[in-house]
Write a structure and sequence with these properties.
Layout (H helix, E strand, L loop, with lengths): L1 E7 L1 H5 L3 H10 L3 E8 L3 H7 L9 H8 L4 E8 L2 H9 L12 H5 L8 E3 L3 H11 L7
Antiparallel strand pairs: 1-3, 1-4, 2-3
Bound molecules: guanosine-5'-diphosphate.
Guanosine-5'-diphosphate binds next to helix 4.
Protein name: Nucleoside diphosphate kinase
Subcellular location: Cytoplasm
InterPro entries: NDK-like_dom (IPR034907), NDK-like_dom_sf (IPR036850), Nucleoside_diP_kinase (IPR001564), Nucleoside_diP_kinase_AS (IPR023005)
Length: 137
């Protein structure tokens, strides 16, 4: 059993595809262990994406992530980290496989609808950024 952090980014929430996205996780054997809808400030988005602070797209990415509400979730299941990333598809929707969330919903490499932790270490940091132990069920 593994846990990972999933985010439905502002573009996904705006498009009203929250249910579609959660349904894909559930159909693939992942379970929602915690969930909330929140609106990040620019500073909170910068803190979440601190690993990307030297990247040229850091400012634009954190503007995007704070432009509207997001849905954050802890997903739980066997190989949850890898499975979530498989369901999401490649970062750039142009390279994403058919049937993935990003292929079906993402606009471009930045506005790509979903986030998923990429390692156990980042899952640990990212889950604790949004949820306390008491909120994960
Ligand atoms: P992920 O793990 O697939 O989300 O990809 P990364 O960790 O590499 O990047 C984090 C997020 O930054 C991505 O999901 C995109 O929203 C954004 N991003 C990644 N690469 C680029 C890029 O080349 N340009 C822009 N504008 N945004 C990017």
């Amino acid at each position: 059993m593994e846990r990972t952090l999933s985010i439905i980014k502002p573009d996904g929430v705006k498009k009203n595809v929250v249910g579609d996205i959660i349904g894909r996780f559930e159909k693939n054997g992942l379970r929602v262990a915690a969930m909330k809808k929140i609106w990040l400030s620019k500073e909170e988005a910068k803190g979440f994406y601190i690993v990307h602070k030297e990247r040229p797209f850091y400012d634009s990415l954190t503007d995007f992530m704070s432009e509207g509400p997001i849905v954050v979730m802890v997903l739980e299941g066997e190989n949850a980290i890898a499975k979530n990333r498989e369901i999401m598809g490649a970062t750039n929707p142009a390279n994403a496989l058919p049937g993935t969330i990003r292929k079906d919903h993402a606009e471009n490499v930045e506005r790509n609808t979903v986030h998923g932790s990429d390692s156990p270490e980042s899952a640990c940091f990212e889950i604790s950024y949004f949820f306390s132990m008491l909120e994960i069920l």
